[in-house]
Write a structure and sequence with these properties.
- The chain is 54% helix and 0% strand.
- By secondary structure, the chain is mostly helical.
- The termini are far apart.
Length: 114
C-alpha cells in the first residue's frame, strides 16, 4: 500500500511527467535549517527568547517574505496563478493550495513586521 502523498504534488513536473528539478535529501535538510534559523529571528523579535538581537538583525526578518514573494511571482510556466502548464497534479495543487498559502504568509509577515 503506497503513500497517498508524494513528490508529484510537491515538485513541479513537465507535461511529459519529468520533474522540473530533483532535490536531494541534503537540499531539504539545508532548507529546513535555514527556515528554523529564520524562525528564531522572529521569536527574538517578539521577545519569546530573552536575548537582545543586534539592530542589523531586523534585515533577516524580511528574507522569508521576500522568498515567498519570489515563489508567489513564480516562473509563469510551472508555478503561480497564471502558469501556462495547468494540467499536472502539481499545477492543480499549486493553484488551490500552495500559491494562496504563499500569499497568506507574505501578508501575515508584512503585518507582523510593521
Amino acid at each position: 500500500m503506497g503513500n497517498k502523498w508524494g513528490f508529484k504534488e510537491a515538485i513541479p513536473i513537465k507535461e511529459n511527467g519529468d520533474r522540473v528539478f530533483n532535490p536531494k535529501n541534503f537540499d531539504s535538510i539545508i532548507v529546513g535549517l535555514i527556515l528554523i534559523t529564520l524562525a528564531c529571528f522572529y521569536l527574538l523579535q517578539v521577545n519569546a527568547i530573552e536575548y537582545k538581537p543586534p539592530k542589523w538583525s531586523h534585515f533577516f526578518l524580511w528574507i522569508i517574505p521576500s522568498l515567498f514573494l519570489l515563489r508567489a511571482i513564480g516562473d509563469f510556466k510551472y508555478v503561480v496563478f497564471f502558469k501556462s502548464i495547468k494540467t499536472t497534479l502539481f499545477a492543480k495543487w499549486d493553484s488551490k493550495s500552495f500559491s494562496p498559502l504563499c500569499l497568506s504568509i507574505i501578508g501575515f509577515l508584512i503585518v507582523f513586521l510593521n
